[in-house]
Amino acid sequence: MTFPTTSDLSTNVPNTAQAWHTLTTEQALDSLQSDPEKGLPENQIQLRQGYFGLNELEEGKGRSTLEILWDQFTNIMLVMLIFVAIVSAVLDLRKAVFPKDAVAIFAIVVLNGILGYLQESRAEKALAALKKLSSPKVRVIRNGNPSEVAAKELVPGDVMLLEAGVQIAADGRLLEEQNLQIREAALTGEAEAVNKETNRLLEADAPLGDRVNLVYQGTEVVQGRGKVLVTKTGMETEIGKIAAMLQAVENEPTPLQQRMTQLGNVLVSGALILVALVVLGGVLRAGWGQFENLLETSLSMAVAVVPEGLPAVVTVTLAIGTQRMVRRNALIRKLPAVETLGSVTNICSDKTGTLTQNKMVVQRIETPSFSLRVSGEGYAPVGEFESTTTPYDAIAQVEVERLLTECVLCNDAILQQQQGEWTILGDPTEGALLTLAGKGGFYRETLNQKMSRVGEIPFSSERKRMSVICQDSEDWDKGADYILFSKGSPELVLERCTSIQQGEKVVPITEIQRNQILEQNNQMAGNGLRVLGFAYRPVATIPEIEEAEEAESQLVWLGLVGMLDAPRKEVRDAVLRCREAGIRPIMITGDHQLTAKAIASFLGIAEPGDRVLTGQELEKLSQTELEKEVDHVSVYARVSPEHKLRIVQALQKQGKFVAMTGDGVNDAPALKQADIGIAMGITGTDVSKEASDMILLDDNFATIVAATEEGRVVYDNIRRFIKYILGSNIGEVLVIAAAPILGLGGVPLSPLQILWMNLVTDGLPALALAMEPAEPNVMQRPPYSPRESIFSRGLGSYMVRIGIVFAILTIILMEWAYFHAQASGIQERWKTMVFTTLCLAQMGHALAIRSDTRLTVQMNPFSNPYVLAAVVFTTVLQLLLIYVESLRNFFGTHVLDGTELAVCFGFSALMFVWIEAEKLVYHLFAAKRLN
Ligand code: ATP
């Protein structure tokens, strides 16, 4: 075979625009100059990537810049500000003064719009970066070796391997398949999976859905396996042609963001009502002469009531949350998960790989006549067999020989040595079997020559077993052409056996032998080993997939293999943290109940008295009965993926907020149903990832607990700055309303000054509060309901209380400042004092609110240096507004002398003192309650 060189490629490019479904596999391979066994050589890949480009879909256009910008200005709060600006402009123009407030408000509206726009585009970029992190990998054959590459690196001519759960990364022509079924809903809308066939040739005009010898990008392998020649990549693929369908990280508003929008609406409506009341009431009392004054007051109140800075702070906090989580290996796919993770009450976790290391090492073998211990570590095929029953060389015995042969033949994994280290490609369970066989001197290379595979009945979590059919090599059975090898859950394989291998003979299996085998199985499982049963059967023909049940019967029992999958070290601790945090961990596994129980007990997931429920038992329960059980079961064993769905639903019916892990195709419904669906980053199928809210980049249970902690921190911080911002808003409104009631002339704060406070002096510290690290007790309290109102647990009353304290302090100062200013000549100075005090008091508030329970002196000021920096920076800005002439002119402030400034600082400090005093009182009561 010749491969095109660089110069060939420009003149003699492989033609990818062919009717591939009309070509035989040989024609297709020829056309793309590829090799079904070796794939493409390295130099070709780079050449072709250069020519065809990366296998990526161009991003959809999404919303245009103008649309994003427009959305910013249609936000109800900004609309109201624009309205306020217009009214204020009209008032100023009538007085023949320059409409400074109006211009400033407009400027701030525009600035806010631009900031919002920048934030949204940044958020989109961040999401795109996250998407890259979760971009799928593909198994290919290149340079004669199987390997894994990023999907975007595929080129036409690559040989791609498919297995159940994979989302296909490029269009291609089938070269081989075993029972391959593909769901093409993404492309054809047809939910039913399509059976694929390699050797069918089709007419050129066959519709897309009928082209059974082709596979398409974006579709999902539901069952079986296949080998595919990549024919089209990137935008050339069918899906690329129709539309750039992005499997983007979804960017939907979180429940909190929705509630914030609602809050905005309520506040705006409230503001409008307030304006109407002040104007109407004032006119009724004092007549139309006061109309303009009243209008000015009410406009200020309207601006004061709206927390202009809040939406931006919420968005930034959620973004920071996702970043913190990714640093701890949890990749958020759907933004709501960030804030709701903190509410999780139950974590339902798979065992293999999540709670355990997924590095299997076979430790024991039980054949009908031998009990063997196997030594060795990792996947290196180096170790000893030691017979615990008979002293002579057991490996040379037929029973053990056959068992090890089956370990190799009934196996899809690949054992390889890379840079001196033995690793596996594929299922670790199967990898361990290859290692075991290697220790006995049995390798695929030699066995395949004698007994090549001609058919298979694939593994699924429902069947819990798999079978392959190989050519017979005479020495197995004289009469049969083929041997069917079956391995899987010991109970299920044993059930299908009618005879047993004893030395060289095959004899009918007795009831006593069956019980003995089950006893051995229980004993190994009880020690936490994962046990597989092995059997075989000579067959005359290659059974079709539909005949699986019949084919996998009348088997000859060969033996049991027990492997250790050590629990992950960090999980025990993580389970403990869960319990302290009021979260109940639950193990859901396909493995044997005794294996599951042993590991669950070791990890602390199962406590004495907790029930283990098997899939079989679960099947017999009605949904209502299951709902009654779920609170007492901490281990579910031998379950199928559909049971997972029932378990989540039952827990949810009990009012639980459930996080659930999954990796297989069939786990997708349970992941969707769970409040937080969690997919595995390493072993998870693309389909499960697609259905998830979060991906564990390291497949580790401890990561779920870490993400939960971050979720709690995010939610705490959001509540913290809502308290901070809205408390101040209430204070401002009350102060503005109080001025005319107290008979002080004029409005104390102009709309411009209020905007300054809400956006800058409130906004910056609020952003800093969003960075607050976890409170020490964050994982020592029960989870909060995700359905609780934001105002629950004292937040509403805090806001009102602090708002009133704010107002009282400022009003006392206002009274003093008013008369002081009257006496000093520059009457308007009292307004600057009110403005300054309100701003500075918020600085004290920001420092004190960092913790609900700990006094500020008890906290390290540098554990959140942002708050300190924001407070210093904002205070300096505020002083500039008073002491820099141009700013003074713009903001309508006046210079304060030393005494006045000191009074402002003094009154502001009282705010800090008040909040600290509240904490002291709280401690006093808490201590009393404890006594
Ligand atoms: P978890 O759900 O915690 O990941 P699991 O990995 O044991 O647990 P499955 O992969 O569904 O769950 O396996 C269920 C059972 O199927 C296993 O206990 C084992 O008996 C059998 N089994 C697993 N892998 C294979 C395989 N490659 N070939 C044959 N049987 C297997």
UniProtKB/TrEMBL annotation:
One GO cellular component term of this record is: plasma membrane
Q: Matching SMART domains, A to Z?
A: Cation_ATPase_N
GO BP terms in the entry: export from cell
A Pfam family that this protein carries is: Cation_ATPase
Give every Cation-transporting P-type ATPase N-terminal domain span.
19-93
Species in which this protein is naturally found: Aphanothece hegewaldii CCALA 016
Keyword set, alphabetical order: ATP-binding, Cell membrane, Magnesium, Membrane, Metal-binding, Nucleotide-binding, Translocase, Transmembrane, Transmembrane helix
Which family does the similarity line name?
A: Belongs to the cation transport ATPase (P-type) (TC 3.A.3) family. Type IIA subfamily.
Q: Where in the cell is it found?
A: Cell membrane
**Name of this chain's protein:** Magnesium-transporting ATPase
- Provide any one GO MF term from the record: P-type calcium transporter activity
TM region(s), chain numbering: 73-91, 97-118, 266-288, 300-321, 729-749, 798-818, 865-883, 895-915
Q: Which domain of life is it from?
A: Bacteria
Provide the membrane topology annotation.
Multi-pass membrane protein
